[in-house]
Structure formats: structure tokens, C-alpha cells
């Protein structure tokens, strides 16, 4: 979960969200400066969404872009089926070209 200072879009708190939380999710894109690697541990168990991101948020070094439009992940066969159904029905929100 993100605690965000809305005006500056700065993350002031970060904690990995529980699946049932229902809050905003990271859509899979991060843009990072090379300094990020100084926050990562060489341990195999270093989870970037834990201590590194929590530390960066605490230091005011994380920012966000909130996308309020359509978004659907494609991580599973079920997700793929949903997207294919949207496409074939002609109701895909991001359908930008015609098939003529």
C-alpha cells in the first residue's frame, strides 16, 4: 500500500499490499535511478518491495503516476481469456485500430 502526498505525487509510506486489500497496484513499470542499487542487498532473500522500497518511501524518494483508466493484467490464463473476450466482443477499452 502506498501513502501518497497527493500534490507532489511523492510516496511517503510503502508496505507490500495484501492480495485482498483492493487498493492501487503497481502495473509493472518502474523507472529508477542507478542509486536504487545501493538500497538492494546482495542476499538472495532481498525483496525489493520490502525494505528497499520502504526505505526509499521514508526518504521521500519515490514518486507515482496514477492511471485512472482501463487496466487489466495478463498474468494468468484467466486474465488472457478476459482480455480476448473484451477484444472479440468489440468492447476492449484500448482498441485503437479497426480490423478492416
Describe this structure in words.
- With 100 residues, the protein is an alpha+beta fold.
- The protein has a 3-stranded antiparallel beta sheet with strand order 1-2-3.
- Strand 1 and strand 2 form a beta hairpin.
- The relative contact order is 0.17.
- The mean pLDDT is 80.
Strand content: 5-15%
The overall pLDDT, averaged over residues, is 80
**How many structural domains?**
2
The termini sit apart by: 44 Å
Order of helices and strands: EEHEH
Task: Work out the helicity level.
Answer: 10-25%
Figure out the total of helices.
Answer: 2
Across the major sheet, the strand order is 1-2-3
Gross morphology is elongated
- Radius of gyration, rounded? 17 Å
Count all strands and give the number: 3
Question: What structural class results from the helix and strand content?
Answer: alpha+beta
Uncertain spans? none
Largest beta-sheet details: 3 strands, antiparallel
What brief labels describe this structure?
100 residues, alpha+beta, 2 domains, 2 helices, 3 strands, elongated
Quick overview:
A hairpin with a 4-residue loop joins β1 and β2. By secondary structure, the protein is an alpha+beta fold. The chain has a three-stranded antiparallel sheet.
Annotate the secondary structure layout.
Layout: E1 2-5, E2 10-14, H1 51-58, E3 62-63, H2 77-88
Antiparallel strand pairs: 1-2, 2-3
Amino acid at each position: 500500500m502506498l501513502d501518497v502526498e497527493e500534490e507532489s505525487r511523492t510516496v511517503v509510506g510503502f508496505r507490500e499490499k495484501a492480495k485482498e486489500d483492493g487498493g492501487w497496484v503497481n502495473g509493472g513499470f518502474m523507472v529508477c535511478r542507478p542509486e536504487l542499487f545501493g538500497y538492494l542487498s546482495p542476499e538472495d532473500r532481498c525483496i525489493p518491495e520490502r525494505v528497499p522500497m520502504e526505505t526509499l518511501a521514508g526518504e521521500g524518494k519515490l514518486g507515482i503516476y496514477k492511471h485512472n483508466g482501463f487496466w487489466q493484467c495478463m498474468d494468468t490464463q484467466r486474465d488472457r481469456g478476459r482480455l480476448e473476450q473484451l477484444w472479440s466482443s468489440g468492447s476492449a477499452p484500448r482498441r485503437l485500430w479497426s480490423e478492416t
